[in-house]
Amino acid sequence: MENERINFNLVQIKELAFSYSGLIDPKVTEKLEKLEVGINVNYRWNLEKNIFGVQLDIAYVDSKSNPQTNEILKFSNYTEFIVENLNKILKVNGPEDFEIDENLETTFVSIATSTARGMIASRTNGTFLGRFIFPLINPRELILTKKIKEGKQPSIKNQEKEPKIKKSLQGRKGTK
């Protein structure tokens, strides 16, 4: 597959879920300076229709409280691509096992992550959460192919309780 041109188009972006709760009291939200972010990645595909999709599940958690009970924001999105000759690029070994070029997978996850960042920024603009911009993340840290190559069990069905990546968000000063 090296040096082979792969043609794909972004064809659909869906917000699957958005909610935020918790810290409603302005006295508490003004003092909030740091949140943790958890991210999980899942994939969907349809070889007959040349469709490959990336689903991101993102959570913002108050890092000073119990993470199980202080989830402030939940967001999920789905980014779908039409990939020319997907059946030649994606090898499906089972319902939860596949092989795909790491660079292509990284590209898909990168696009989905950037899309999620913009969607979250749009939804939180003007709220206290608008101070916490979804961080820049190396998409290679999220992709499942790397996990599989390292001999770890892939989790395509979001079965992991712990997010794949946890990052800290520092709130910007002077923004409401």
List descriptors.
Bacterial Protein-export protein SecB; 7 strands; two-stranded antiparallel sheet; 176 residues; 4 helices; five-stranded antiparallel sheet; elongated; alpha+beta; disordered C terminus
Description of the molecule:
- The chain is an alpha+beta fold and 176 residues long.
- The chain has a single domain (8-170), classed as SecB-like (Bacterial Protein-export protein SecB, Roll), CATH 3.10.420.
- Helix content is 22%, strand content 36%.
- It is built from 4 helices and 7 strands; from the N terminus they run βαβββαββααβ.
- The strands form 2 sheets. Strands 1-4-3-2-7 form a 5-stranded antiparallel sheet, with helices on one face. A two-stranded antiparallel ribbon has the order 5-6.
- A hairpin with a 2-residue loop joins strand 5 and strand 6 (97-99).
- The protein is elongated, with a radius of gyration of 18 Å.
